[in-house]
């Protein structure tokens, strides 16, 4: 069973398989201190240090995912990916524990993908990026918004995806480390549940 390593004020806390943390009302902060409720899919080890969720360089592909399911929501996060590193945010994953672009929407973060239609800002298998953006070796702002069948993504304020699709309705949100090369870091993750707002519209 894989574990997540939490480094808090110099102390290492090991949690086998699951990182269960106290929740807060309103937006769900997953990597801004020890808050949120997430689990680790088998594969890579992860670290949470000073509010930064980081993969471990050289580990196989793995995910950190929310234990709760989301349908309509807006996610904001900062991400840092080293050159050649594959990452992404998978949403509405309806066939857990399977996490893949075949059973989730994958908002891709991979500048150097060989297929231009799958580079950073794309929704894998659904839509290529509307604009070319760069995220390698620097912190970038990622915004993902889903309301009903309307799916949108922005990278550093640039719109990269805006489509209508109803393939997947609800499921956990997963943060990917593609494995083997480089590393990926996430911080200031915020998930705003829009389900009640959508119901009122």
Keywords:
10-stranded mixed sheet; 201 residues; 6-stranded antiparallel sheet; Jelly Rolls; mainly beta
Topology diagram in text:
Layout: E1 3-8, E2 11-16, E3 18-20, E4 28-29, E5 37-41, E6 46-49, E7 52-55, E8 62-66, E9 73-81, E10 87-91, E11 105-109, E12 139-147, E13 150-155, E14 158-164, E15 174-177, E16 184-193, H1 195-200
Parallel strand pairs: 1-6
Antiparallel strand pairs: 1-2, 3-5, 4-16, 5-8, 6-7, 7-16, 8-15, 9-12, 9-16, 10-11, 10-15, 12-13, 13-14
SSE arrangement, N to C: EEEEEEEEEEEEEEEEH
CATH level-4 homologous superfamily: Exo-inulinase, domain 1
Mean pLDDT: 80
Total number of helices: 1
pLDDT < 50 runs, ≥5 residues = 1-27, 31-35
Estimated helix fraction: under 10%
Number of domains: 1
Largest sheet: 10 strands, mixed
CATH topology-level name: Jelly Rolls
From the 3D coordinates, which CATH architecture would you assign? Sandwich
* C-alpha geometry: globular
